[in-house]
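User: structure tokens for this one?
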Amino acid sequence: MKKRLSKGLLTTVGAGVLSLGFAAGAQAEELFTDVSVDSDAYGPIESVFFKRVMTGYDQANADGSVSYEMRPYQEITRAQAAKMISNGIGNIQATQNVSDFPDIDEWHWAHDYVTLLENDGVVSGDADGNFNPEDRLNRAQIAKMLVEGFDLPFDENDTDTGFNDVSSNSWEAPYVKALVDAGITTGTSADTFSSYNDVTRYQLAAFIDRIYESKELNDDMALVQARGTFNKMKDTFYSNVIKTDPNEPVFPYENFRDEMLESVTVGYEPTVIENYEHQCRACDGLYYTGSFVSKLGFEMIENTENTIELKVMYTQAGLTPVTEYHLEIKNDDGTWKVNDYNRTYFETKEEMPVLNLTAEEAANYMEGEERSYSAITIYKYELLREENGSYVFMSYSSQGDREIKVDKATGLVLF
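Assistant:
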């Protein structure tokens, strides 16, 4: 059985603060506890996991690594589907808008995901206006959400799906046909779609994975693809860095070269080898620290069929820009691979970009960053007041409430 070691998707590596020494020499654990690498579910689940479309349920292992329970065959809820689709289309991680659904208040964990889709007209309520977040979704319903969320080609008059169990007069027929035409589904058999069967987490992961394989990516989705490609590369890199103790020879690169080449181009491989051989294994000095989750400073340089090149900023102490990350991935015979990566540090205040964020932008970025990396549940940010060139927010989370003051120009959190 192939073993993989993941440091919580290395999200703490994304912040540049993970020490590698504590787990060196440990026996590798599988990345997923309930998805075998030999199963049909592994590829789609791994794809959406590294894209951070589906995050799973993490658990710490005795060796200091983190594995994830993905529950692939569990029926997905409407709230869970909203999160996956919102993340899949590349939405921001937070919104200050409030949902109109009476059963999705601001304290619900999926509030922002649902609200973002609600604002885009992707989801709607029942006869009473409720969203019903814990209800299950059937294949007909998910077809509609995917078509509208990912903006797939759609013709309401094109209703000949080729499935015997989908009437051309049914409401779902044009949505199912859109999935068929886009190559997203082939049905549960050659002539059945099974519209009213509940959708599992694996099935939705597979749908989204196929959309990424077949659809022209807009800039938001291209960022998600770049994130997934980089995270897969980063996971392979650091999983092998920590296989030996810092006072022992580094684990030979040749032993995992084939795996590394699944996510890096041959042209970029020499840089990977150099970084691997010089990576400190007993300190926090890490090279691959980009996360590509936040859209702060997001600039798409090139987005074509074969190349995605972009820049994003990483912040500390609130929203203070400290690093600009540059990433280029190439489509290598149908597989996206890292072709270039570098980072630029803003060493002085004069070098830092001036943000001049609105209150809504500041709240969205800070709330989104906390939601992406924090182990606690972030409910919402509330603007209390503006004073002396700063925004004063109240952050509400599962660990209590706290007041946060943010400088408008620099994004620095003031104490």
